[in-house]
């Protein structure tokens, strides 16, 4: 005979208890998986914190000090005030308003970015498009174009310096062969625009700082070297993007009678916009952080007359040559904020024009 207690026990919601047990076991398993994944990621996170975020935070702290080779005293924002009140623009009593060392370094970096980014991207796209459509020798040509990217920048820059040597360089030899005037490629301090105006019988206005007259021959050589060295990477990225474009689209356009230019304009370029977007961001960051070429071509001096003194080279010299560690850290923080702002602007407004394939 079944008692009332046994009947009540049989009527308990056993399925609900089992569901609770199952939910708890799943939650525990997910927690274990999360901790396991975190343990696997800890070495990478430790390296990231040690070599990325800690130097950034420590650099911010150093920029608030008068810091030679050892910390001397806390100065707050004095280093930043010096940048924007003394070293960005200066008032010369003889010639008027002139760019200070930070302002000139910024202008040199801007000229360098303007002179290298558009030309290198257009040239690499053209080469990648040709390599993508040829059949014979494709692999060999890809290797040849990629070799400059994997070549040591310092070794290649030394070779370029010999090419543009004023006495024994191949550049002046070629200029002589075509009947031109040999140039002092790496030592002429006059900007190219001023030389052009003077050749036409004009004069550069004295009220405008010569830093706004554009690059010198030395900076032009550095631009040429950078374009030569960066083509390989950009070509490979463009080739990767071209392989993602459906072949049916371009083939249908050709069957409908579209010419090559119309296919590139209305199909290839819109579908390749994510690749362009990526390369533009990477190129802008790389241009404002470029150091090796400037150091090798100018011997670390930024000459002639500061025409190749980029911001990274100016930071290097302030830090290691003049021992102004706190001030150099402040300039590097300004450069960091500048790059952060440029990248944000590109992400904010440039991504609207990007067409992603779904």
Structure, explained:
The structure is a single chain. Strands 1-2 form a two-stranded antiparallel ribbon. Strands 3-4 form a two-stranded antiparallel sheet. The mean pLDDT is 86. The protein contains 15 helices and four strands. The protein has 358 residues and is mainly alpha-helical. A hairpin with a 3-residue loop joins strand 1 (65-67) and strand 2. Helix 4 (101-133) crosses helix 9 (217-243) and helix 12 (273-288) packs antiparallel against helix 15 (325-350). The N and C termini lie far apart (69 Å). The protein is globular. 69% of the residues lie in helices and 4% in strands.
* Shape estimate: globular
Q: What structural category arises from helix and sheet content?
A: mainly alpha
Number of strands: 4
The total count of helices amounts to: 15
The overall pLDDT, averaged over residues, is 86
How would you spell out the order of helices and strands?
HHEEHEEHHHHHHHHHHHH
CA radius of gyration is: 30 Å
Percent range for β-strand residues: under 5%
End-to-end Cα distance, whole Å, is: 69 Å
Low-pLDDT segments: none
Describe the largest sheet: 2 strands, antiparallel
Strand order of the largest sheet: 1-2
Q: What share of residues is helical?
A: 55-70%
Which helices and strands occur, and which strands form pairs?
Elements: H1 4-10, H2 14-62, E1 65-67, E2 71-74, H3 78-87, E3 89-92, E4 96-99, H4 101-133, H5 138-150, H6 153-163, H7 170-177, H8 192-199, H9 217-243, H10 247-255, H11 260-271, H12 273-288, H13 292-298, H14 311-321, H15 325-350
Antiparallel strand pairs: 1-2, 3-4
Helix pairs in contact: 4-9, 4-12, 4-14, 5-9, 6-13, 9-12, 9-13, 10-11, 12-15, 14-15
């Amino acid at each position: 005979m079944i008692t009332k207690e046994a009947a009540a026990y049989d009527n308990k919601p056993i399925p609900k208890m089992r569901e609770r047990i199952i939910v708890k076991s799943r939650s525990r398993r997910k927690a274990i998986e999360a901790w396991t994944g975190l343990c696997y990621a800890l070495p990478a996170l430790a390296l990231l914190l040690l070599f990325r975020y800690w130097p950034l935070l420590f650099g911010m702290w150093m920029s608030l000090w008068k810091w030679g080779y050892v910390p001397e005293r806390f100065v707050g924002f004095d280093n930043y005030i010096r940048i924007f009140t003394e070293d960005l623009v200066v008032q010369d009593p003889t010639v008027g308003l002139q760019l200070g060392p930070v302002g000139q370094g910024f202008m040199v970096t801007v000229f360098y970015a303007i002179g290298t980014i558009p030309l290198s991207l257009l040239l690499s796209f053209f080469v990648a498009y040709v390599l993508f459509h040829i059949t014979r020798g494709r692999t060999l040509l890809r290797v040849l174009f990629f070799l400059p990217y994997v070549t040591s920048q310092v070794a290649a820059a030394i070779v370029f310096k010999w090419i543009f040597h004023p006495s024994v360089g191949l550049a002046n030899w070629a200029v002589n062969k075509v009947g031109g005037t040999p140039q002092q490629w790496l030592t002429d301090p006059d900007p190219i625009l001023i030389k052009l105006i003077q050749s036409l019988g004009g004069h550069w206005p004295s009220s405008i700082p010569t830093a706004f007259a554009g690059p010198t021959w030395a900076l032009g050589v550095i631009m040429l070297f950078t374009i030569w060295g960066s083509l390989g990477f950009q070509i490979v990225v463009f080739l990767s993007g071209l392989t993602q474009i459906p072949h049916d689209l371009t083939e249908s356009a050709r069957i409908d009678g579209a010419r090559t230019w119309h296919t590139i304009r209305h199909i290839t370029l819109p579908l390749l916009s994510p690749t362009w977007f990526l390369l533009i961001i990477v190129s802008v960051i790389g241009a404002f952080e470029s150091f090796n070429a400037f150091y090798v071509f100018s011997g670390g001096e930024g000459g002639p007359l500061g025409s190749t003194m980029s911001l990274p080279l100016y930071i290097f010299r302030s830090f290691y040559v003049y021992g102004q560690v706190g001030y150099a850290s402040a300039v590097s923080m300004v450069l960091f904020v500048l790059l952060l702002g440029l990248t944000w602007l590109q992400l904010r407004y440039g991504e609207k024009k990007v067409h992603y394939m779904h």
